């Protein structure tokens, strides 16, 4: 009933149709090194980033996170995982995961964000509930800005996806920036 | 109590006001720096404004399209004309799941609808999980800013509050320690919640999905652990196409805090297997605002808070002085539409400097709307007698050049020679907290004529 009332009121009260603007993406074009800008922006939002070769992934992770005991890896690019999960894993059982290693689909140069889907993390809660997070990203998959990013992910199965830009953080106590609110306490991105 | 009286209260603690003022101005500066880094920023604002204007002009069709697509993805869509319906719908979903524990991420809409007290009266535990919102919830206060809910609290205030409610040790207000304790406390809430409630930053008509932005990850911690997700949105949250997120996500965080994007921008299109997702679409006065030609652009708002951070009045009066869910300049143009009498002082809580309009990422003409509300309010609401008679006299004097000159002369004479108590009295609002500028012995007109003669 409210549905009809709301739609009727909108119809009655809305202005004459105004055109939907065309987006001229050339206005945002910049001739920059997207990988370098991505790395700079990721540092700005509190993440750390290393450009390495695929065979050096596990060594790098061990170096950065030497004391992790429960590790989930949802990618075949790392062999460090010691807790197996699948799509049906109860997310509550991930409460004590120390480190999650997942692959990212796409990086965005302008803000250091990385697109992660439910397919990448198997369990949606994983990249949030883990204490620390490692994302492996192919550096050829870094685009300039968000408009380009949405073009890139337009043809996907839409269930759940998230742009992650840095570790979780808050400035809610007197504007002091504290890294590690409810999500991952740290984020390390490995560009391969 | 009007805005001015409440602002007076806030101004009693001068050191705190100064801190509040500077802290928000710092956020404004971060916004500038961040915006200037973006190639085509002004064009981006133009697009944001244009897309939102199109949305309002076609809103019924977009809402239907959104609903159809969301339903095709298995999402249950509900419609609420007002706050009461919104709360009742949510309660019935909770009853269906036999839910006793609810975690909620930031949603100004649920604040507007007073959802928490409603659910609490039904015996349900509702925990706000954004740290700032949790702080004000524990303090039993409303948020004072839409992005920085606890900006009015010092770290020492938070320390005392957490000692009382979370059994923390006195830390003298150590932010790392306090955040760490809040993380533990809220992790327990996330793990034991039955249902998660979130707001909606953007609802995409052509996909039927919603996007929620947080820095803390609290929306995701709630949603992915609970068995059902309820997302609450005002009708104006619709955007036509997913690619338009590419415009709005570029604008939102930069305008809000100066970050290039929030840490998490989560896209919810389908519930996880075995779980439920609900969306509640709410009017609660929005269609009425849509009918007001002069004020409908206020519905473009994407709730970034930039107008608050830049406003010289907001920074020095605090969010609570507005006594409305959305404070600051944008709240002052939204609130009179809800209750003209109750909020009639808010459009006057502005210098009309226009800074709010300049920073608004979707180019709402906020200061012009403030001025327009004033025109309506002086017609419809009784004004204080002093203000009325002074303005009437000023109107007469300003319309007669000779009278104006004489008044100027005698005022200059009086200000120079009259005793202090005669000048700094109740009628002189300007002189309450400061001295008047030094009086020159000639008027601008006289000075200008003399200057021309000497040329």
TrEMBL record, chain B:
Residues of the 4Fe-4S ferredoxin-type domain: 291-312
Report keywords, A-Z: 4Fe-4S, Electron transport, Iron, Iron-sulfur, Metal-binding, Repeat, Transport
Q: Which PROSITE patterns match?
A: 4FE4S_FER_1 (PS00198), 4FE4S_FER_2 (PS51379)
Q: Name one Pfam family in it.
A: LUD_dom
Listed under GO biological process in this entry are: lactate metabolic process
InterPro entries associated with the record: 4Fe4S_Fe-S-bd (IPR017896), 4Fe4S_Fe_S_CS (IPR017900), FTHF_cligase-like_sf (IPR024185), Helical_ferredxn (IPR009051), LUD_dom (IPR003741), LutB/LldF (IPR004452), LutB_C (IPR024569), NagB/RpiA_transferase-like (IPR037171)
Q: Which domain of life is it from?
A: Bacteria
Q: Which GO terms describe its molecular function?
A: 4 iron, 4 sulfur cluster binding; metal ion binding
**Name by which UniProt lists this protein:** Lactate utilization protein
The major lineage groups are: Bacteria, Pseudomonadati, Bacteroidota, Flavobacteriia, Flavobacteriales
């Amino acid at each position: 009933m409210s549905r009809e009332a709301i739609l009727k009121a909108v119809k009655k009260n809305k202005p004459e149709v105004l055109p939907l603007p065309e987006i001229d993406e050339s206005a945002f074009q910049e001739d920059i090194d997207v990988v370098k800008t991505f790395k700079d922006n990721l540092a700005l939002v509190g993440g750390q980033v290393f450009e390495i070769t695929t065979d050096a992934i596990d060594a790098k992770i061990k170096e950065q996170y030497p004391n992790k005991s429960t590790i989930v890896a949802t990618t075949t690019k790392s062999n460090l995982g010691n807790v197996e999960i699948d799509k049906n894993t109860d997310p509550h059982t991930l409460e004590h995961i120390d480190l999650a290693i997942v692959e990212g689909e796409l990086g965005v140069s302008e803000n250091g964000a990385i697109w992660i889907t439910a397919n990448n993390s198997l369990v949606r809660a994983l990249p949030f509930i883990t204490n620390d997070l490692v994302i492996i990203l192919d550096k050829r998959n870094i685009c300039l800005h968000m408009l380009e990013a949405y073009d890139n992910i337009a043809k996907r199965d839409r269930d759940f996806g998230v742009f992650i830009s840095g570790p979780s953080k808050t400035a809610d106590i007197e504007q002091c920036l504290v890294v590690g609110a409810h999500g991952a306490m740290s984020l390390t991105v490995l560009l391969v | 109590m009007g805005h001015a009286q409440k602002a007076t209260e806030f101004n009693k603690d001068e050191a705190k006001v100064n801190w509040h003022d500077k802290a928000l101005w710092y956020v404004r500066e971060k916004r500038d720096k961040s915006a200037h880094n973006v190639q085509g920023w002004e064009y981006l604002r133009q697009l944001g404004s244009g897309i939102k204007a199109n949305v309002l002009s076609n809103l019924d069709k977009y809402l239907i399209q959104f609903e159809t697509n969301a339903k095709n993805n298995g999402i249950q869509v509900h419609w609420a004309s007002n706050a009461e319906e919104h709360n009742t719908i949510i309660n019935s979903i909770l009853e269906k799941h036999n839910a006793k524990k609810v975690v909620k991420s930031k949603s100004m809409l649920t604040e507007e609808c007073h959802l928490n007290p409603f659910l609490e009266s039904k015996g349900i535990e509702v925990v706000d999980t954004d740290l700032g919102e949790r702080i004000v919830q524990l303090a039993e206060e409303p948020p004072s800013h839409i992005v920085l809910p606890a900006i009015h609290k010092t770290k020492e205030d938070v320390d005392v509050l957490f000692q009382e409610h979370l059994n923390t040790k006195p830390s003298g207000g150590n932010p790392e320690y306090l955040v760490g304790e809040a993380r533990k406390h809220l992790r327990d809430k996330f793990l034991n919640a039955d249902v998660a409630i979130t707001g909606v930053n953007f609802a995409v008509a052509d996909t039927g999905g919603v996007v929620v932005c947080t820095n803390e990850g609290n929306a995701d911690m709630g949603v992915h652990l609970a068995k059902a997700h309820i997302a609450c949105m005002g009708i104006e949250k619709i955007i036509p196409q997913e690619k338009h997120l590419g415009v709005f996500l570029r604008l939102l965080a930069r305008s809000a805090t100066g970050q290039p994007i929030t840490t998490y921008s989560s896209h919810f299109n389908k519930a996880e297997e075995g779980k439920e997702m609900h969306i509640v679409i709410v009017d609660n006065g929005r269609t009425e605002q849509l009918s007001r030609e002069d004020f409908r652009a206020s519905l473009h708002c994407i709730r970034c808070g930039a107008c608050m951070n830049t406003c010289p009045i907001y920074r020095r009066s605090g969010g609570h002085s507005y006594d409305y869910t959305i404070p600051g300049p944008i709240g002052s143009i939204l609130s009179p539409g809800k209750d003209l009498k109750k909020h009639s002082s808010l459009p006057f809580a502005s210098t009309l400097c226009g800074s709010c309009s300049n920073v608004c990422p979707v180019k709402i003409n906020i200061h012009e709307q403030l001025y327009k509300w004033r025109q309506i309010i002086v017609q419809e609401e009784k004004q204080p007698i002093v203000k009325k008679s002074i303005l009437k006299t000023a109107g007469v004097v300003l319309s007669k050049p000779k009278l104006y000159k004489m008044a100027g002369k005698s005022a200059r004479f009086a200000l120079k020679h009259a005793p202090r108590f005669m000048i700094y009295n109740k009628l002189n609002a300007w002189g309450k907290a400061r001295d008047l500028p030094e009086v020159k012995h000639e008027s601008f007109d006289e000075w200008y004529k003399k200057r021309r003669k000497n040329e």
